[in-house]
Write a structure and sequence with these properties.
- By secondary structure, the protein is mainly beta.
- It has one domain: Immunoglobulin-like (Sandwich).
- The protein contains no helices and 10 strands.
- It has strands at about 1-5, 10-15, 25-30, 35, 40, 45-50, 55-60, 65, 75, 85-90.
- Strands 3, 4, 7, 8, 9 and 10 form a 6-stranded antiparallel sheet that branches. Strands 1-2-6-5 form a 4-stranded antiparallel sheet, with no helix packed on it.
- A hairpin with a 2-residue loop joins strand 5 and strand 6 (about 45-50).
């Protein structure tokens, strides 16, 4: 799952996982596909990152396994014959019609 963060130009990504999961990371074109560690909070792992306006692809890495976002159904095929999740960040300021989560 993702949502616009309080800080302008930032997006908070989160994923709920089962008990026993040790480490969760986020990787996407906005991180040059370098994994960013996510922190466990209130039963989910989350991280807030700066993301420029536009269409971006990402995946979660849960204990070494790459996963699409289970709470989002916008995907794109990648060169590895799997899917990436897709987030579109609106360039309009928050509060404008249609701004925020998509």
């Amino acid at each position: 799952m993702f949502k616009t963060a309080r800080k302008r130009g930032s997006v908070t990504f989160s994923i709920k996982v089962g008990n026993g999961v040790g480490k969760v990371f986020l990787a996407g074109d906005f991180t040059d596909w370098k994994p960013l560690a996510m922190r466990k909070r209130a039963g989910a792992f989350s991280v807030t990152v700066p993301v420029l306006p536009g269409r971006h692809e990402y995946k979660f890495i849960v204990d070494g396994h790459w996963r699409t976002d289970p709470d989002h159904s916008d995907w794109a095929a990648n060169p590895y014959d799997t899917l990436n999740s897709v987030v579109t960040v609106d360039a309009r300021p928050r509060g404008a019609a249609g701004a925020g989560r998509r």
